[in-house]
Amino acid sequence: MRILFLSHYYPPEVNAPATRTFDHCVRWARAGHDVTVLTCAPNCPNGAVYPGYRNAWRRQVEYLDGVRVVRVWTWTAPNAGTIRRILNFLSYLLSAVLASIRLPRPDVVAATSPQFFCGWAGVLVSRLRRVPLVLEIRDLWPESIEAVGAIRNRGLLRILELLERRMYLAADHIVAVGEGYRDRILAKAGVAGRISVIMNGVDLEKFVPQGPDAGLLRAWGLEGKFVCSYIGTLGMAHGLEVVIEAAKILRQKGRSDVRFCLVGEGAARQALEKETIRSNLNDAILFTGQQPKEKIPAILASSHACLIHLKNCPLFETVVPSKIFETMAMGRPMIMGVRGPARQIVMEAGAGVEMEPGSPESLVQAVETLADDPQRAGRMGQAARERVIRDFDRDVLAGRFLRLLEETAGFGAPEYADSEGRSRLKTRYRKAA
């Protein structure tokens, strides 16, 4: 089967959509399928093209782990500023649609959000090439941009809502990454017979429990500290001001043994770092900047706890951050500052402690709970690993997605099941007669 996958983000970028798309596409290619990813020159989150790549009208083609990666020109922009980002998104839509005309005709097109216009690029490509479309929804636009205040014009938001509904109706099948997303999509469009939930997961061979990295702790000045890490985008939706306020409370209480690590980049980093300096909290909060994906397991292993946090907003109660699965796979306990199914997954597994989103007092209480009871934290980490093995193995989830693509494209999908009855990508699939 020939699969064309449209994604605005792809490795060497390290964000969640890049990781999920890569992990799925690599497994489909290993199963014998012809997989092409249509993306742009890597530049997220700062808008600067990565070394070794170019952002040019002439497309750039490379092969990564058996996947053909076609990179097209876009108007690059940092992950901040509404107008520049919209231009970035629209330029990808235009370039991706034009580039698709020159590619071999696929059997099925898949397109992933965020961002919203990548989904529309998938709609247009599927119409031009007259092939079915599977639309993957990882974020609800325009709800999410309204929730963080990026766009406040109701007229513009209304137009985007109409486009969103048309996009859902145009897809042959929709994949949502959580039950909450599915329910919100169904409330907007009559697609009940063609929507599935395939949650995020983790590569259990890359994320394996290990001891702390002594060199990393020494280099970052974390030796002898209780390390609470936030790993991911430092964005408008994440409400990380709560970390600064919690650090102030811990200082007042004389807790110099706790240090927060904010690992990543994003639109909010500059303001957060400026406030940290102004509050003289440099010895309590460390900003590491963006780190290579291959370094994340060592960072997780060197953290005593990991913070999962979003702003206190009803929309974000539908979100299941992908970082929870990598954290669980590494056997680290979590502080859950997200309501909804994400919190339910963690708490039912006994893999973390709750905090009230946006409450520094609640964060301090959670940190102290784990810092003062390392045996309890250890039990949570072990429970986390056991749960992710059982339910969130990337091999299993990629196999489920592949079967859906095959069904949508009209292909047969012989199934291989392991001893626990879970489908895995072990066979080379062939088109049904």
CATH architecture of the largest domain: 3-Layer(aba) Sandwich
Query: What is the total domain count?
Result: 2
Beta-strand segment tally: 14
The CATH homologous superfamily of the largest domain is named Glycogen Phosphorylase B
Report on this model:
- The chain has 433 residues and is α/β, with parallel strands linked by helices.
- It folds into two domains: 2-201 and 393-409, 3-Layer(aba) Sandwich (Rossmann fold), CATH 3.40.50; 214-390, Rossmann fold, CATH 3.40.50.
- The protein has 15 helices and 14 strands.
- The strands form two sheets. It has an eight-stranded mixed sheet, sandwiched between helices. It has a six-stranded parallel sheet with strand order 11-10-9-12-13-14, with helices on both faces.
- Helix 2 packs parallel to helix 3 and helix 11 (323-329) crosses helix 14.
- The radius of gyration is 22 Å and the shape is globular.
- The two termini are 13 Å apart.
- Mean pLDDT is 90; it is low at 413-433.
Identify the notable features of this structure and list them briefly.
433 residues; alpha/beta; Rossmann fold; 2 domains; 8-stranded mixed β-sheet; 6-stranded parallel β-sheet; 41% helix; 15% strand; globular; disordered C terminus
Task: Summarize the entry for a quick read.
The protein has 433 residues and is of the alpha/beta class. The protein is 41% helix and 15% strand.
Question: How do the helices and strands line up, and which of them pair or pack?
Answer:
Layout: E1 2-6, H1 16-30, E2 34-40, E3 60-64, E4 67-72, H2 82-101, E5 108-112, H3 116-129, E6 133-137, H4 143-147, H5 154-170, E7 173-176, H6 179-188, E8 195-197, H7 214-219, E9 226-231, H8 241-252, E10 258-263, H9 269-278, E11 285-287, H10 296-301, E12 305-309, H11 323-329, E13 334-337, H12 341-349, E14 352-354, H13 360-371, H14 374-391, H15 394-409
Parallel strand pairs: 1-2, 1-5, 2-4, 5-6, 6-7, 7-8, 9-10, 9-12, 10-11, 12-13, 13-14
Antiparallel strand pairs: 3-4
Helix pairs in contact: 1-15, 2-3, 8-13, 11-14
